[in-house]
Every structure is written in C-alpha cells, then in structure tokens.
TrEMBL record, chain A:
InterPro entries: Hydantoinase_B, Oxoprolinase-like. This is Hydantoinase B/oxoprolinase family protein. Residues 6-529 form the Hydantoinase B/oxoprolinase domain. Residues 514-553 are annotated as: Disordered. The lineage of its organism: Bacteria, Pseudomonadati, Pseudomonadota, Alphaproteobacteria, Hyphomicrobiales.
TrEMBL record, chain B:
GO terms for biological process: glutathione metabolic process. Residues 207-492 form the Hydantoinase A/oxoprolinase domain. It holds the Pfam family Hydant_A_N. This is Hydantoinase/oxoprolinase family protein. It comes from Enterovirga aerilata.
C-alpha cells in the first residue's frame, strides 16, 4: 500500500519542514524574554515523529540535536493518551532530559485521529531554582541541589492551561516573570509549528508527508553510509580526560572504542571512568547527543540532521560511569563537559579510520563570573566572562579558527564588546589579544587562544566563581599534530602570592585593583609538524602567531 | 530644450542610463558594462543617450543639471578582494579585534574550512601606546615614540591606505585626530580612514571592521570617481555629480570618496529607490521589491512608503555597520542548477553563471538550470527570448532535463515542474524570513516584480506567501537608473551615549540631538541649497541585552517637557512591534543618537511611461504547463491598453521579461501600462 513518494515531492516536503523549523526559531527569538534566549540563541527547535525519530531541526545548538529523540521517547512512555491541544513539558535528566536548565516543550501534531509528529522547543533557562542562581554549582552533590526537576508533565490538557501547575513551576524559579514569558514563547513557537504542519497535511495529506519523511530518512542514511563506506574498517580507540571533578578526583577518563564495519559505526563508551560526586557527570541523553555531534562533525556539513543520517551509528555505554550517571547524581555541566571530551575521544578514535575528515581538538570552556558593586553607580552587578575564547582545532583543510570557542559552541557564541563591558562594569581590559604559541603545532596549526589582562576596578571586595575544565588538558592534536597548551588563569593581587585558578571554584575573594591574567588555550594541531609548509611557518613568525621562542629558535 | 537630469546604473552586464527633462520626457540608453574601468561604459552610454536625444555629448552635458550615479566599484573591490593594501593603527593590547570577529564563525557543522584571511593581516595591525577610559578621559596619553614607530612600520610595509581605530574614540577622538594629522604630515599620499569619522559609535569590532573596509575600498572609489568627474567636466558637464550610497540617499563625489564603505550597496540601492518611487506612483505603502537575476534573488522591504534600513549588514563576510538598505540576497535565480545526489533533489545554490549558462543558452551546460525548466514548461519562448536577440536551444534543454529525469525516475514534465516549484519555494522562504525578522506580515504587502527573471516566478512566489497582489512595471531593467533620479541627498551623523543612559535628562538629550543636527545641516549645506528635513533616530536596548533596536523618533514631539519618557516609550513600542512584548519596568539604555539631514529633491517631472517598439503580434498562443498542458494566450505587454483586463492562465511578454498569471488570477493594466495582478482568493 505504501507507494514511495517521488524525489521532488520529498524535496518539497523537506523544504517545507526546514522552513517550519526556521519560522519556529524566528518566533522563539522574537518572543522570548530572557537575554540568554533572545540574544545568545541558547535554544533549539526540532520535529520528531512518535517513535522519537528526529525529522527536522534548526541549526542552533549542536549538543541539543541528538538529545531530542530521547526526550521524545520519555514523553511517549509517560503519556499514552495524548490529545490535540496537549502541551508536555519536561527537563529531568533522568527522564530523557539533558540537564535541568534545558526546559523542553512538546506539542503533538495530529492528522485527524492519528498522532504523527511532535513539534519541540528546548530552551536554556537563566534560572531553574535549586541552591544557586543558574544551576551551575560546583558544590552540588545531587540533582536536587541543582534545581527543579520536571518529569514529563501536561502543562496544557486539550488546550486548557493547568495554571496551578504553572504557578508551581514559576514559584520555584528566581525570576518568575521571565520564566513565564519564556515558557509562553516556547509554547507559542511549538504551536506555530503544529499549525504549519497541519497546513502541510492539507497540501499533501498526512500519509504522503509520512512517506516523504521516510524517504528523507533513507536519503540521509544513504549519504551517511556512502561516506562511512570510504572509512577504514577496524576497531579504533580514543580517550580524553577531564581535569577533575572539583571534589578532589582528578584525571577522569572518557574512553571510546569505535568499530567501523562496512557502513556501520558502533561507539562503545563502556570503559569510561566511574561517575563522580559533582556536576561533571553526563546524563544518558546528553551522552547520546555528544556521540551524534561527533559523527555530525565527521560527515559532510550539509548532511540533513535527521534520524536517517545517524542510523548507521549505534552507541553503547554503561550506567554508573562518567558518561551515564545513575539517577540522583548532579549533571549540570554535562552539555559542555564531558560532552566535549566524549566528542574528542570519538574523533580521536576515528582519526585512524577517516584521517582526511578528523579535525584536531577544539578548546574547552573555562569561565569566570564576578559579583560585586560598581563604585560609579553603587549598584551590584554580576559579570560573566565570554571573552578570551579558546581556539578551534586544525583540520586536514588548514589551520584552525582563532578565538572561535569549544567543541560544543564551534563559533556560535558571541562575546560582547570590550568597550561596552567597560562602560557597564567596573572593569578595565588592559589587554585582549591572540595568545601567540597557544595553537597546537602541526602540518596545520591549531587556532590561537587569547590573552586577557583584566583589572577589577571595584572599591569593595568582590567574589568570583569559576566553572569549566581544561586547565590541565589542552585541546588534543590529531594524527601527529601537537596538543595545544591548556588554559592558565591567574589572579594577581597586590601583596599576595599569585593564585592559579582552578576550573571549579566558588567564592574566590577579589580586591580592588586585582588583575585576572587569563591565558586560554588554542586548538590542537593536525598532522606532523615537520610536514608544515615552510612558507606557513614563515607567515606564523611574521604575523606573530608563533614567537621565535615558540618555534624553538 | 530644457535642462536634464541623468541617472546611471552600472550593473554586472549592462550600464543603464536614463535622461529626464523638465517636462518629464524620458529617454533611455544601454551600453555594455566595462568592469575594469567602469567609466568607459558610462561614457559610451552617455554618448548613446546623447544620440537618442539628437544632441552632441557636449551639448547634452552642458544642459545637465545633475547626474546621479550608482557604482559597483567598492562592491567589486570587496567581493573580488582587490582593494588597497591597508595598515591598521590601533590601541596597544587590542590589535586582534578584527580577526577575532567577536568569536563568531558561520557554519556550525563545518569544522573543516579554514578561516578566510582578514582584510588586514596581523603584521599590519600595529599597536600604538595610548588608552582612553570608557568616559573618554585619558588613561595613557598618546605616546609620540610609539606612534612614530608605528608610522615607520606603515611606511616600510608599502601600505597605500591606513585605518585608525582606538578604543573609546567615539567618546573622545583626540588621539585619533592627532594620529591622522601626523600621518598626513609624514605620509601625505596615503588614504586615511579614521574610525571616529567613519562610524563614531561604541562597539569596537563594528567600528574597526567598518573603518578597515573604508580604507580597503576607499582608494579605488576615490580614484574612479575623481577620474569620472574630471572626464565629465572635460566633456562639458556643468551640473553636479552625485553618488547613490548604500542607505539610498545620495552624496557628492568627495563625500563618497571619504565614506567609501557606504558605497558597497550603491548599485542595488538604485533598485530600491526605483521601487520606492513605484510605491509612490501607485499609492501603495507596503511593497516587497523582488529582483531575480541569473544567480540570485534580491529582496528588500518598503513599509509605510519607506525603504527598510539596517545597521547590521556586511558584504563578502566583512562587517559594515553603517546604516544601509536592508537587502537580502537568496542564492536562487534563472541560472540555479538542479542537482540529485545521494537520493536528494535540490536546486541551487550552484549556478550555471554566465559560462556555460543554462543549457538552452547553448554553452554546453550539462545540468538543468531553472531557465531550462521554464523553457520546457512553455513559460519561455525559444524564439522571442530577449526580444529575439538570443535564440534558445530547446533541444539542449530537453537533453539535460531528460538525462536528469532518468536519474530521478520521473518524467520530463514532472522534473521540469519540480525544478520550477522548488526554486519558487526557496525564493518565498527568503521573503518569509526577511519579513519575519522585521516583525511584519507578508500578506499585507504587494510584490513588486523586477529584474529579467522575476516575472516567471513572482505570482507563484506570492501565492506561496499568501501575498494577494503582484505589480510588474514595464521596462523594469531601467527602474534603477530611473529611481535614482528620485533620491534625496542624505548626510548621517551619530553619537554614542552609552553608560550615562540611566541619567540622561530632557536637556541632555536635546543637546545631543541639537549638536548632531547642527553638524549634519552644516555639512549638507555645503552641497545643497534647497529645503532640508531632519530625521532623528536612536539605538536603544534593555539592560544587559547584547543587541540594540533602531527606533525612529520622527513622531516624537521634540519640545515636550517629558522628552526622555517619550523616547523610551517609542523604544518600548518598537520592541513590542519587533518582539511582541515590551518590558516597561526594565532599565532602558540609550546607546546611539542618530540624525540624518535630508536634502529634499523635487521628483523628476512626470511618471515613468515608456513605449516600446512592438516586435510581435499583440496576442498569440502557445502550449504551456498550467496544471497540465494547455494552450495559453500570450500577450505582448506593450500592446495592452491601460484599463485592459485579462484572466489567467496567461503569459505576458516584453523584450526583457516574461510574466505568468495562473488560473483565476486577474490581470489589469494600470494607467502606466504596468501589470497589476490580483491573485485568486
């Protein structure tokens, strides 16, 4: 009975679907309240089918993409009696979620009586309750400390808002007004998607759309398999390390054993180290998503990010390890760390299988937040450091991007203007430039990290927190390329010993005139350094990307 | 014979010229563009124009009161990376702002493309010892020895152009001015762009990038324009020569040479000016100009009779934060190629380009282009294309489409229709995103179809977006040159006031704007003796948001006692328009004040009415695909009388364009001879 839909209809449906997710994204951008959503675009849009297969997504946050299917499955398991007008909400990492700040709204799409799709909006909340603002808490030892847990719940029943439930949720966040506004934006965007899909059903009929989607899965799968078939068969191993968990455990290992056979790839993370007591554990969905992200980077950039593209990939892991924590463990950091290390371990393993595709490591995230009072206005402030971005990894196509960020942001996170920061905060950016010698050496050099000398011009004492990783391990080199040096952040304070900052510290005292000497690492190098073109070496010296000393002269 | 105004639009292939006399008599000419030195094509075109006026070039120019010129010199220099060798003098410790690009990179999933080299390599980005604080006070005075050393490095490098950009110079330009003065003394032959002159606004990346682009294209623009003006003067031009800038206003040659980065959209700005003039003539306030060429479709927006401006644009990956017309380009045009790879059918973004061109051009193209599909569907006629000057090779189109459809496992018709349909979808998506981002509903607009390939797609694209009305002006190809003649003179100044935002009072705000108005008016007076209108706007944001909203302040009563409150209310209202909500309890930060002095130029007399020579019978028929193959009437547009009405399906042809109307669409011919199409409900 199923007649294959022709390639042109398929293509028209594909365009329609990507136009729908783009429109949902624009709606979200325009209607959300909080800055993290409307300025930093820390949200994702997706459409899945009832099996949790990703049908279409808007290219926002790579680490969200592979996680939505797991969230959908959790919703499907919980609710067997979904009706039109329902809206499901969830965030819990132990019910298909990634980490608590990523609240996710689902709207079902029916063709008559048959439920076919979900439109999904996942948005990072600036606050989700818990013991500290914003959920990133190095001291957390369980998930309840990190914030409000929301298993799949019905926010709307057949079109009717459960306002008592909304009150409960809003009451448990610190900025209820923004929370309500953002949630309304999420539901609005998801419903817009529903309306547009219903129109698509009107144009082609539900069954034709479903068949077209199957065709899109098959086409994407065929493209992936065609690429993977060029990879070398075998069992390959790669590893990456987290500096520490902030609770005293160091050198936490993420291990990937990747088997390539024909057009199939199996990723096995079972040998990774045991889970920790802190927020660097990964949830199951986030681990799955990190694996998808690694494979997406190795395939072609324009391959559709749908379930078909990732059909060749299977993932194995063990519960109780750093990549898949047991229920109750804290996990907030996981969308950056260990996501980045999972990606790195997989790419490292596959470098032996597809050397012409494997890129060297991108930087790791290491952030500072400063809280104090502005002497010019007497008002208190919180400043988050997005400056001094680490470098991107080199690739077989050339040198890496300088100051472009981490595996999980890959050039998608904008740092604000230095001038604006100086106007708005009692800070003086004495220096903010590329850090020479910070890119890993190689036939192609890693992108540079940055040097920031930041003078704190508060009068009263201030407090700093850090969160991140990579002060011990720099971005990895690939195929003979060298690792980049790790991050090195110092706090210089008159009359005190210089203090080397660790990546998971709270309440660091900062005095007037103190200087943060931030040196972020670059990206890893690709290929043996001795193969580097002499003209490129000359250019590195001339442009000051590498110093004479760094070049060993 | 009365005095003349002449518009000159240099396009990729042709240079279009139009002359209008005081009685509104309009004459056109066309000559091939000469990209290596555009002035050759311009002069040749002027010769042709004079011939059509029965005048000698000298006589014509002697009677010319004003020439308005759209140029692509800056555009091409930037796109082809053929600008000047630029050095950048900047604050010590901050010389990588340009290459850091605020940490951004375009394609999220492409981790195997190395970065494009910046316009100024690091070795030519020279740190100078000096530093201002955020309030403009001096933290480190400009160091003589450091500056001398930097200038020596510039000299040694052989750079021909210098950009100067120091931190917080929007607040206090003293260090930049001292630097420029010394450069002028020591290296007098160099082109110099100073950031506090080009874009005196907070945000160092936008300022440094814009200033660098200015320095990069400046020498070429100045050289070309100076040269052109000299030749026109030698040929007898007595009147003035004005250049269209990216914001759609015009300025004299000297100003265009100074603010060269403001000429990168000079070409397309003419099209928007023409579209605006059309909107005026038709009395339509909301119009979407839709210009389809061979490789791309340009989309802009005219809302409430005004062309939409944006400060967030760039070209060729370089940020240019000067305000310019908001023109979105979608990689979809007549030359877009169909592809089928890995089970996936798509059209574009690859284009057949000029060589080999679509297969039907006979240049040996092997993949079907949109034009090939349009030909096979009967939308184009092989013998009348471009007035019969370019016969199309139907057989070649059939061969490539057949070969391609065999791979798809589909028929020739299905394939051609699929190509046509998919490109329409992509064009519609471009419009949808453009309007969404501006917070407007496309269904309230009319689509203005121009550019040779637009007419075949306009009606279906409009249908896709539920746009109820499509307008097709005749001789759309000269719309740009003609529209330029309706442009006003425009000089913009801005001033940053960030930081003190919370404390600004009515007196302070009036002072800022009064100062800007005085400066803008004084400058405009140097070029223009007529009436001057002032346009005020401001960029504002909520607290720590990282982007600003551009708020027109023209409707604010400037003498009101609660000026600041009224300005803030305009911001809340605009925010609501764009983002559906306002946060009236949040702090509003006033970032940039902006004033445009507009020299209002009376419209060129008369409306655009052109008669074209008839080259074919008024009505014929041909078989074309409209929900199945059928015989469809084909009308020569120039044969249609104003007031004539036709129901679709029908095809309308003129020398440079073909227009399709579908079943149930109602086409009327307006008093200018243009097609006005009401789509079926």
């Amino acid at each position: 009975m199923t007649r294959a839909v022709d390639p042109i209809t398929r293509s028209v449906v594909e365009h329609r679907l990507s136009s729908i997710v783009a429109e949902m994204g624009e709606a979200m951008l325009r209607t959300s309240y909080s800055q993290i959503l409307n300025s930093s675009r820390d949200f994702s849009i997706g459409i899945t089918d009832t099996q949790g297969r990703l049908v279409a997504q808007a290219d926002h946050i790579p680490v969200h993409v592979g996680a939505l299917p797991w969230a959908t499955k959790a919703v499907e398991e919980r609710f067997k009696d979904v009706v039109p007008g329902d809206v499901i909400l969830m965030n819990d990492p132990y019910h298909g979620g990634s980490h608590l700040p990523d609240l996710t709204a689902f709207v079902p799409v029916f063709d008559g009586d048959v439920r076919l799709f979900w439109t999904i909006v996942r948005a990072h909340q600036s606050d989700i309750g818990g013991s500290t603002y914003g959920a990133y808490n190095p001291d957390a030892r369980d998930i309840w400390t990190e914030g409000l847990r929301v298993p799949p719940v019905r926010l709307y029943e057949a079109g009717k808002l459960r306002d008592d439930l909304l009150d409960l949720l809003a009451l448990n966040t610190r900025i209820a007004h923004d929370f309500r506004g953002d949630l309304a934006a999420m539901v609005g965007a998801a419903r817009l998607g529903e309306r547009r899909i219903l129109k698509l059903f009107g144009e082609f009929s539900g069954p034709v759309v479903v068949q077209a989607v199957e065709g899109l899965f098959d086409a994407a799968e065929a493209r992936s398999r065609a690429i993977i078939s060029t990879w070398k068969d075998g069992v390959f191993e790669g590893e990456a390390f987290l500096d520490d968990d902030g609770h005293g455990r160091e050198n936490i290992r993420i291990a990937a054993r990747v088997t390539v056979r024909g057009t199939d790839v199996e990723i096995d993370l079972s040998d990774s180290d045991p889970q920790t007591t802190s927020f660097v554990n990964s949830s199951h969905a986030n681990m799955q998503s990190a694996c998808v992200m690694a494979i997406a980077y190795l395939l072609d950039p324009d391959i559709p990010k749908n379930a078909g593209a990732f059909r060749p990939v299977t993932v194995k892991a063990r519960e109780g390890t750093i990549v898949w924590a047991e229920p109750g463990r804290p996990v907030t950091m996981c969308t950056s760390h260990p996501s980045d290390e999972i990606v790195e371990a997989i790419v490292k393993a596959l470098a032996a299988s597809c050397p012409d595709r494997a890129m060297a490591g991108w930087g790791r995230r290491f952030r500072i937040a400063l809280q104090g009072e502005d002497p010019r206005t007497g008002r208190s402030f919180i400043w988050h450091m997005f400056h001094a971005r680490p470098g991107g990894g080199a690739s077989p196509a050339g040198d890496g991007w300088s100051s472009a960020g981490e595996w999980h942001t890959v050039g998608g996170l904008k740092f604000g203007s230095v001038e604006f920061a100086e106007v708005r905060f009692p800070l003086h950016f004495r220096r903010h430039e590329f850090l020479p010698d910070s890119g890993g050496e190689g036939q192609f050099r890693g992108g540079l990290g940055a040097a920031l000398d930041l003078v704190v011009e508060t009068e009263k004492p201030a407090l700093a927190n850090t969160a991140g990783d990579g002060a011990r391990y720099g971005a990895c080199g690939m195929l003979g390329g060298k690792d980049a040096p790790p991050h090195r952040y110092m706090l210089l304070s008159e009359g005190r010993e210089p203090r080397m900052l660790k990546t998971k510290e709270t309440s660091i005292p900062v005095r007037s005139g103190d200087v943060f000497e931030v040196r972020s690492g670059g990206g890893g190098g690709w290929g043996p350094p001795e193969k580097r073109d002499p003209a490129a070496r000359e250019r590195d010296l001339r442009e000051g990307f590498v110093t004479a000393k760094g070049a060993g002269q | 014979m009365t005095s003349l105004r002449i518009g000159i639009d240099v396009g990729g292939t042709f240079t279009d010229l139009v002359a209008v006399d005081e009685d509104g008599r309009t004459v056109f000419a066309k000559s091939p563009s000469t990209p290596a030195d555009q002035s050759i094509g311009v002069l040749a075109g002027l010769e042709e124009l004079a011939r059509r006026l029965d005048l000698s070039l000298r006589d014509m120019l002697a009677r010319t009161e004003r020439i308005v010129h759209g140029t692509t010199v800056a555009t091409n220099a930037l796109l082809e990376r053929k600008g000047a060798k630029v050095a950048l003098l900047t604050t010590e410790g901050h010389r990588d702002v340009l290459e850091m690009r605020e940490g951004l990179k375009d394609d999220r999933y492409d981790l195997r493309s190395p970065p494009k080299p910046p316009l100024v390599p690091r070795s030519l980005r020279i740190g100078v010892r000096e530093r201002l604080r955020a309030d403009g006070s001096v933290l480190i005075p400009l160091d003589d020895a450091s500056l001398a050393d930097a200038i020596e490095q510039v000299r040694a490098s052989g750079a021909t152009s210098v950009a100067v950009c120091y931190l917080h110079s929007y607040r206090n330009p003293a260090h930049e001015i001292a630097t420029v003065e010394r450069l002028a003394r020591e290296l007098p032959d160099l082109y110099v762009a100073r950031s506090s002159d080009v874009l005196p606004q907070i945000k160092e990346y936008e300022r440094v990038s814009t200033t660098v682009v200015n320095a990069y294209v400046g020498p070429a623009v100045r050289r070309y324009l100076t040269n052109l003006e000299r030749r026109l003067r030698e040929s007898g031009l007595a009147g003035s020569l004005f250049i269209i800038l990216s914001h759609g206003g015009m300025a004299p040659v000297e100003e265009a040479g100074r603010l060269a980065a403001a000429t990168v959209l000079s070409g397309p700005a003419g099209g928007v000016a023409g579209a605006r003039r059309c909107a005026e003539m038709l009395g339509i306030a909301d119009l979407i100009p839709f210009d389809v060429g061979g490789t791309s479709t340009d989309i802009s927006l005219i809302a409430n009779g005004q062309a939409a401006l944006s400060g967030a644009r760039g070209l060729a990956g370089e940020r240019i934060a000067l305000r310019s017309l908001d023109i979105a380009s979608v990689a979809a045009g007549g030359g877009s190629l169909a592809q089928y790879e890995g089970g996936r059918f798509r059209v574009g973004p690859e284009s057949a380009g000029a060589v080999p061109g679509p297969a039907c051009y006979g240049g040996g193209g092997t993949l079907p282009a949109v034009t090939d599909a349009n030909l096979l569907l009967g939308y184009l006629d092989a013998s009348t294309f471009l007035g019969g000057r370019k016969a199309l090779d139907l057989g070649a189109a059939e061969r490539v489409v057949d070969e391609f459809s065999a791979r798809l496992g589909m028929s020739r018709d299905e394939t051609a229709l699929g190509i046509h349909r998919l490109i329409n979808l992509q064009m519609a998506d471009g419009i949808r995103l453009m309007t969404l981002r501006r917070g407007v509903d496309p269904r309230k607009f009319a689509l203005l179809s121009f550019g040779g390939a637009a007419g075949i797609h306009a009606v279906e694209v409009a249908r896709e977006l539920e746009i109820p009305r499509v307008i097709v002006p005749t001789v759309a190809s000269v719309l740009s040159a003609w529209g330029m003649l309706a442009s006003d003179l425009r000089y913009e100044v801005s001033q940053t006031h960030a930081g003190a935002g919370a404390t600004i009072d009515d007196v302070g705000m009036r002072r800022i704007f009064a100062d800007l108005e005085e400066r803008a008016t004084a400058r405009l007076r140097e070029w223009f003796a007529g009436p001057i209108r002032i346009e005020r706007s401001a960029e504002m944001r909520y607290g720590e948001q990282v982007f600003e909203v551009d708020v027109p302040l023209d409707e604010v009563a400037w003498d009101a006692p609660d000026l600041v409150a009224r300005v803030h209310e305009r911001f809340h209202a605009r925010h609501e328009e764009l983002f559906t909500y306002a946060s009236r309890d949040q702090e509003v930060v006033f970032v940039n004040a902006r004033v445009a002095a507009v020299g209002v130029v009376p419209s060129a007399g008369g409306d655009l009415v052109v008669t074209q020579p008839m080259t074919a019978p008024a009505v014929t028929e041909r078989r074309a695909f409209f929900d199945g193959w059928r015989s469809v009437p084909v009308y020569r547009i120039e044969s249609l009388q104003p007031g004539a009405a036709v129901s679709g399906p029908a095809i309308f042809e003129a020398e440079t364009t073909t227009v399709l109307a579908g079943e149930g669409d109602r086409v009327t011919v307006n008093r200018y001879g243009w097609l006005d199409i009401a789509l079926r409900g």
